[in-house]
């Protein structure tokens, strides 16, 4: 099923023509529960990987605030919770019985951190044919994103990008190594999702605009009437509903919200970085209602499980933030950059 973002409540570039030249396309990925294969675009799915190519590992130091767990621990605890959330329960009945509670505690206890290289975990693979406007190095038709699912010195999982020509891949790796250590809470483990890419138009958040324009947008928002309700949208109307889309996406603008943008330049050539890929801790919440796709506006039939409809990948960045991967527009060989917002 396709996913359709409702048209923005107002055409903001018509009201503020200064915004028109700043319009950028973003492709919302709309990850939803699925069983993607190696020949499909996915989040948390298997990667198309040559049998004779080394699987990437992380050798950076890790910040272990709490003991790491295994990938299997995360999968088993999520499966346990999902089954219990979906089971009919009497009023007052506990979610878990004592044996399940003990099992969950055991799965969450963790183990002493390994000291050697940590194999990376697949995060996403994007066939360029599925993502309007996404281009890669000459010959590449596939972008693969992996990461080391632990905290590094920037308090983020360490991402690794692979551009690949899928047509040149012969025998496939069928049993890639799993990470030995995963962050204690399993926040960096994506559940398998099929994608429903959709192109939308974005504008910079107020923090990336000249202050004078940002102030006028704020004042306009305070005076505006929201077409979907009687509650006034307030000064953040532009920021939340008219600038950047929430959720996993490709391209667009960075979702600057809680700190001022810092200059982000490629260390190799000085070019300004551009957003490539955004990982989000959810696709909608109370403040982003107008971005909910039309197809997701009715609650799914039956009970809602541990895996919420607004967040099928179940990845959490910080306290519910986003992680953006930026790339250099000059060369795909230049280093990428990761930022949390
Ligand atoms: Zn690492
Ligand atoms: Zn560069």
TrEMBL record:
Origin superkingdom: Bacteria
UniProt lineage: Bacteria, Bacillati, Actinomycetota, Actinomycetes, Kitasatosporales
Gene3D superfamilies to which the protein is assigned, alphabetical: YwqG-like
Name of the protein in its database record: DUF1963 domain-containing protein
